[in-house]
Amino acid sequence: MVGEDVREFLAENGFVILPDLFTPAEVREVADALDALFARFAELPATSTLDLGATAGEFGRDVPEILYPSLLAPALRDTAVFRRSSDLARRLLGPGTWFRFDHSIRKPPGCAYETVWHQDRVHKRSGLPERRLNVWVPTAPVAVADGCLRYVPGSHLGGVLPHEPVPGRRGALRTVGVDEAGAVDCPLPLGGAALHLFETVHGAHPNLGASTRTAWILQFTRPRALVPAAAWLHRAVHRRHIRRWGDAGAAR
């Protein structure tokens, strides 16, 4: 599944596109689970939801994001998409790689929200050395007009770059001084996936198309031995809130 050419491309560019990693049926299984969660977005635990389009003075569901959907819908961990992504991450990062985090972002049709240039590593709180890989899986074909990802090749080789707050966007940071001349758009067919490293500068176009763009993003890290206690605490807090949410739902 992973040839030396994939490893070399990822190491050189910081990202790689795999257009046929999954079958359409495998992706539909994920899409059904995520659709069910987004349909109940207002009912989900507050710690599990964000609106990426929120400004300093408002919070709604313009660009909904679900944190740890695989905790809210454990069946996601049993899907072929999860299993193959996990295996792929282990092959690319090496022994000791483990699943750290997942989230899902939905951009509705005609959504002008652009995911600004950024490095995922800028949000890392621990200074411990580790490698991380994100697997970005759209639940439908995604073209440039639909909000596909875009990358700056080789940007992962420069370490953590300067970032600045994005005016009008709560908590958002963007990379300063990105040269977009060499940026690469990465449209994907159904069944495709985009992979990138923790330091790779990336963003996503607005969804100006007629269809909803939903993506499941899985993050893997290596080595496990260096995971700080804060990471386990973060997940434990989410588990507790999700358990309470589930108990409340069962009582209704």
UniProtKB/TrEMBL annotation:
InterPro entries on file: Phytyl_CoA_dOase-like
Pfam families: PhyH
Protein name in the entry: Phytanoyl-CoA dioxygenase
Taxonomic source organism: Saccharothrix syringae
GO molecular function: 2-oxoglutarate-dependent dioxygenase activity; iron ion binding
